[in-house]
Write a structure and sequence with these properties.
Strand order of the largest sheet: 3-4-2-5-6-1-7
Strand content: 5-15%
Structural class: alpha/beta
CATH architecture of the largest domain: 3-Layer(aba) Sandwich
Radius of gyration: 28 Å
Number of strands: 17
Number of domains: 5
Distance between the termini: 78 Å
CATH topology of the largest domain: Rossmann fold
Shape: globular
Largest sheet: 7 strands, parallel
CATH superfamily of the largest domain: P-loop containing nucleotide triphosphate hydrolases
CATH class of the largest domain: Alpha Beta
């Protein structure tokens, strides 16, 4: 059995920490005892240490299977900076030339290397398999293990071959780690890796330092984001966008407004991506605007805000991406902008996939929509999704809890919902159940003969939105559960069965009606002396530049915060700061203590923090292209194709042009698709309505006209009469 005293001593010697987070010590002890171990731990919980420390303590080399080259490089840099031996950690992947790869293998054979990072693709190469057969392997670590599951948010088919490669090489203990896994994904991972007997450690998924907020996506979204960033100067942030095009556009807008930002997406060449990522890690820029291609390999602890410009395609993906904020336990603001159009775009992206993949994708998307529209505590929804109960009614750190809605009585509706699900044999998903109970005789409901059942239309007096909210809250409250093997299908729990027999009161909140309140910065940090903290960050950045490593590799923000509270001015004192071991104290301690000693003596420096917001500049090239194309009466579909735009994106661009006061004439296009009397009908609506609300117009006219037709006529109206 692994000795706890020796594990804690190794933690202090290698990493400079006095104690472990959560169940890290038990995980490490279990692995050192030779067990297979499965670790579910949220981002920022310290997953990496769970295999790094036992690797440093063990004979032989730990093989770490990791999905991204960036992740490998960052972790190798961090391990090397713990001491003086550069060969202690290496990566072996496609980025290495032949001579560099041979040097790595030589260090492994010589026994210098304790951690060898490999990509799953590299693991399957015959030459690497042959090499791994010849060395002493201490254990295997599979990082980002959710990539194994088709239900995970970053599915990677190569991950599903890991077990057979391990059997080919040599059987050793295995530790699989992930920050996000629903019970279904967890089951899938363990089954695929042959780890059904693994010791499972599941940490709480609750990140109490993160603040969650969902906001409506309006035409002022860029202005809101700029205002937020400028009100948080010098803080690191990530903004996620759905498309590469939007990433490029938003990055340009931020730069025009004097915000240091880089773009990052899979369409960029590898060298540019690597440079932009490194600039962010090295704090040369404050903001990264990215697609989901960015992030899995980013081990940056002091990201202070994560903004989703577009709603993500799954709650797992959302949780993983927001989890990159506040990994050091400090401030972490998570803001998502939401609109139904995002859902439609994501649904379009699934076209071309197999029916099974589309079904999975749509179920995951439905969960995300329910999260965005819900008025329930967002923390409660997220934790419930991962199978973890959260008892407090108000977390105090999400928009719904800070601005709670009045609860309404829904005991009658809950009974009818549960009875309806039971009558359907507990074999359908929420969309079908809602249609059945509200009396919507869809083709599938009629085809199954369910329109003849007694519960059909039992809640015809209830809106779909209300019933969707009730269904979600019934799951959270334990009256319903999702079927493990057929996710999305709702089944009654024992509590649900009892509620049918003995009905009672059930209070619920209706889905959110988004308002237009400004984004507000939340969650203050724990710095005792902000002036000194800023000075120490500059010292850290200077050391990092000299060594060509990210600043957090030197010391992390909590270490600097501790310095602002204790003011260490000697080698001995700084080595007692948590996170500063003897190695780091010897390497970097004097540079910090000299500055602190001088600050203490001089006592008092102030820093200005003026915030100015400027208007976003036009994207002139696209604007001119569209105006000239319309002047030449080019078909609008052709115009969209010419700029690589979706048709609805082109309409958005044209709407912006006319809203800014430029008159255009698209009659040549409208006349081809709409009769004159139809045009007049829509124009009459816009002439009579009191407010310019497109969503309301679509709701009012949507039964007779498509959304595109309504938008085109609104453009005509604004251009002619605006």
């Amino acid at each position: 059995m692994a000795d706890g005293t020796s594990i804690r001593k190794a933690l202090k010697d290698f990493f400079g920490f006095e104690s472990f987070k959560g169940n890290q010590e038990q995980i490490i002890g279990s692995l050192l005892d030779g067990n297979d171990v499965f670790v579910l731990m949220p981002t920022g919980g310290g997953k990496s240490l769970c295999y790094q420390l036992p690797a440093l303590m063990s004979e032989g080399t730990a093989i770490v299977i990791s999905p991204l080259i960036a992740l490998m490089k960052n972790q190798v840099d961090a391990i090397r900076n713990l001491g003086d031996e550069e060969g202690v950690a290496h990566f072996l992947n496609s980025s290495l030339g032949k001579s560099a790869a041979e040097k790595v293998k030589a260090d492994v054979v010589a026994g210098k290397t304790k951690l060898l990072y490999v990509a799953p693709e590299s693991l399957t190469k015959e030459s690497n398999v042959a090499f791994l057969k010849t060395i002493n392997i201490s254990f295997y670590a599979i990082d980002e293990a959710h990539c194994i599951s088709e239900w995970g948010h970053d599915f990677r088919p190569e991950y599903r071959r890991i077990r057979q490669i391990v059997e080919k090489v040599q059987r050793r203990p295995m530790i699989a780690l992930t920050a996000t896994a629903t019970p279904k994904v967890q089951h899938d991972i363990q089954k695929n890796l042959g780890m059904s007997d693994a010791v499972v450690y599941k940490s709480s998924f609750n990140r109490p330092n993160l603040y969650y907020e969902v906001r409506p996506k309006t035409k002022d979204i860029d202005r809101d984001i700029i205002r937020y960033i400028k009100s948080n100067p010098g803080k690191s942030g990530i903004i996620y966008c759905l498309s590469r095009k939007k990433v490029e556009e938003l990055t340009e807008i931020l730069r025009i407004n004097d915000i240091s930002a880089h773009a990052y997406h899979a369409g960029m060449d590898a060298a540019t991506r690597a440079k932009n990522q490194d600039d962010f890690l090295m704090e040369k820029v404050d903001v990264i605007v990215a697609t989901i291609a960015f992030g899995m390999g980013i081990d940056k602890p002091d990201v202070r805000y994560v903004i989703h410009y577009d709603i993500p395609k799954s709650l797992e993906g959302y949780y993983q991406e927001t989890g990159r904020g506040g990994r050091d336990g400090g401030e972490g603001v998570c803001i998502a902008f939401y609109s139904h159009k995002d859902l439609q775009k994501l649904d379009k992206l699934m076209q071309g996939k197999t029916p099974a993949e589309q079904e999975i994708g749509r179920q995951l998307l439905a969960e995300t929509a329910r999260y965005a529209e819900s008025s329930v505590c967002r923390r409660k929804i997220l934790l419930n999704y991962f199978g973890e109960p959260y008892e407090p009614e108000n977390c105090g750190s999400c928009d719904n809890c800070r601005n709670p809605k009045v609860k309404v009585e829904a005991g009658r509706e809950l009974v009818e919902l549960l009875k309806g699900i039971r009558q359907l044999g507990e074999n359908y998903k929420s969309e079908y159940i809602v249609a059945f109970l509200t009396g919507c005789a869809s083709d599938s409901v009629r085809g199954n003969g369910h329109d003849e059942l007694s519960m059909f239309g039992a809640l015809s007096d209830v809106e779909d939105r209300f019933l969707n909210a009730l269904t979600q809250q019934a799951v959270i409250s334990g009256f319903l559960r999702h079927d493990m093997d057929n996710y999305g299908i709702l089944r009654l729990t024992d509590a649900g069965q009892r509620f049918i027999t003995r009905p009672g009161s059930f209070k619920m909140v209706e889905s959110t009606d988004f308002d237009d309140s400004d984004i507000q910065p939340q969650m203050q940090g724990s710095v005792a002396d902000t002036v000194l903290f800023a000075i120490l960050k500059d010292v850290r950045k200077s050391i990092a530049r000299r060594l060509d490593v990210p600043p957090y590799v030197i010391v992390q923000d909590p270490v600097l915060e501790a310095m602002t509270m204790t003011y260490p001015v000697s080698q001995e004192e700084i080595c007692n700061i948590p996170g500063i071991g003897a190695g780091k104290g010897k390497k970097f301690g004097k540079e910090f203590t000299d500055v602190i000693a001088r600050y203490v003596e001089e006592n008092g420096i102030e820093r200005p923090s003026d915030i100015k917001v400027r208007f976003v500049a036009d994207r002139n090239k696209t604007k001119i292209y569209i105006i000239q194309g319309i002047d030449r009466k080019i078909d609008l579909e052709e115009l969209a194709d010419g700029k690589g735009l979706e048709f609805d994106e082109l309409l958005t661009e044209i709407e912006t042009i006319v809203e800014e006061g430029t008159r255009i004439n698209i009659d040549y296009y409208i006349d081809e698709i709409l009769e004159e009397d139809c045009q007049e009908d829509i124009l009459d609506y816009f002439r009579s309505c009191e407010e310019d609300d497109l969503e309301e117009a679509i709701q009012e006219l949507g039964e007779e006209y498509t959304e595109e037709e309504i938008r085109l006529m609104r453009i005509k109206f604004l251009s002619a009469w605006g």
